[in-house]
Amino acid sequence: MSLVPAAFLDRDGVINRERGEHTWRMEDFEVLPGVIEGLSELSNAGFALVVITNQSGIGLGLYGHREVDEAHRYLHHMLLGHGLRLHDILYCPHHPSGGRCLCRKPGSLLFERAMARHGIDPLRSVMIGDRQRDIDAAAAVGIRGILVEANAPLLPVVMNQVLNA
Ligand SMILES: [Mg+2]
Ligand SMILES: [Zn+2]
To answer: Which residues lie across from 91 on neighbouring strands?
Structure first.
C-alpha cells in the first residue's frame, strides 16, 4: 500500500474557536469561518485529514470522554454533510499534573498512531497549529509545521502555505 499525505490539524483555535478556556459544551463549540472551504481544498488535493488535540480538561475532571466524543461526532457528521471525510480525531486526555504522558503535544505519540493507522507519509504531510507545541510534536516525527494565529481563517493558510508550498 502506498503512503498518503495528511493534513494534521490542531482543534481548538484551528477548527473551532479558541476561547481562552476549555471547550467541551456543544454551545461553545463554534466551527471557525472558512474551515469547511480549507478542508475541502486539502481533501481535493489528496490529503487525509487528521485532527490531533490536547484535552487536558478530562485529566482535570472538568469534563469526560463522553463530552469530547459528542463534539467530535458532531464535527464528523457536520463535515460529512459537506462531503468531507475526517479520517481521524485523536486526543490526549491527560493533564500534566497527573504525570507526564507521551500523547500530549509536544509529545508525538498520537502522530505516530495516526501515521501507522492510515498509512501516512510524514514527508508529504503538514501540521497546522496555533501553539509551538503543535509544531514541535510534528517536527519530532518529521512533519512540517505551520504555526498560525489562534482563530485565523484556515483557507488562506491552506492556499498559501500548503498547496502553494
Ligand atoms: Mg490550539
Ligand atoms: Zn496524554
So the answer is: 53
Q: Report yes or no on 68 lying in a domain.
A: yes
Whether 1 is covered by a domain: the verdict is: no
User: Which ligand is nearest to the Cα of residue 113, counting in written order?
Assistant: 2
Answer whether 118's CB lies under 8 Å from 48's CB: yes
- How many domains are there within the chain? 1
**pLDDT tens track for 10-49:** 999 999 999 999 999 999 999 999 999 999 999 999 999 9
Distance CA 2, CA 7 (A): 17
Phi-psi region of 103 (alpha: psi -120 to 50; beta: other; left: phi over 0): alpha
Rounded distance from Cα 149 to ligand 1 centre (Å): 9
Task: Say how far apart CA 69 and CA 41 lie, in whole Å.
Answer: 26
Give the CATH number for residue 149: 3.40.50.1000
What is the pTM assigned to this prediction? 0.97
- 12 noted as active-site residue: yes
**For residue 151, is it within any domain?**
yes
pLDDT in tens, 43-83: 999 999 999 999 999 999 999 999 999 999 999 999 999 99
Residues 6+ apart with CB under 8 A from 157: 38, 128, 146, 148
| Smallest-distance ligand from the CA of 107 | 2
